[in-house]
Design goal:
By secondary structure, the chain is α+β, with helices and mostly antiparallel strands. It has 2 domains: 80 residues, Arc Repressor Mutant, subunit A, CATH 1.10.10.10; 46 residues, Dna Ligase, domain 1, CATH 3.30.1490.190. It has 6 helices and 6 strands, in the order ααβααββββαβα. α3 crosses α4. The radius of gyration is 17 Å and the shape is globular. It comes from Natronobacillus azotifigens.
Length: 136
């Protein structure tokens, strides 16, 4: 997802455009990894003096609920990244730096027989470890 698509989702859902929201969206659009609320706060503080964690968390929660961001939990803390929209895939996520790598195969294909009498609404598959840069 890009910033224009995200802003359109916000507008369609009845939410206002704000400078802070655009900065948040640009931050995640330019990151190729999962980031924390603290990372975002550190990024925004120089431009928005006095910005609070409450403002950060409220917007992260909204963007997650609207499907603009996706979230995962690493080391007991929620991390976010811009939602991938263009094709179905899953992720390897580095537990050290948060970098992601797309995984094209989907384990749901192997589970269809086991779940044939169940109605599946959605699924999420993530693999956690360390990326090559964090192994060294």
């Amino acid at each position: 997802m890009n910033v224009s698509e995200a802003l359109a989702i916000l507008k369609d859902a009845g939410y206002k455009y704000t400078d802070k929201r655009e900065v948040i969206l640009n931050y995640f659009a330019n990151e190729d990894r999962y980031r924390t609320a603290k990372d975002l706060l550190t990024h925004m503080e120089p431009s928005f003096e006095g910005i609070s964690f409450d403002t950060i968390y409220r917007n992260l929660h909204l963007f997650d609920q609207l499907g603009i961001l996706e979230s995962t939990e690493l080391a007991g803390e929620k991390h976010y990244q811009m939602r991938c929209m263009h094709h179905h895939h899953h992720h390897f996520i580095c537990k050290v730096c948060g970098v992601t790598k797309e995984i094209q195969s989907c384990p749901m294909e192997d589970l269809s027989d086991e779940l044939k009498h169940f109605m599946i609404d959605d699924h999420k598959f993530e693999i956690y470890g360390r990326c090559p840069a964090c192994i060294s």
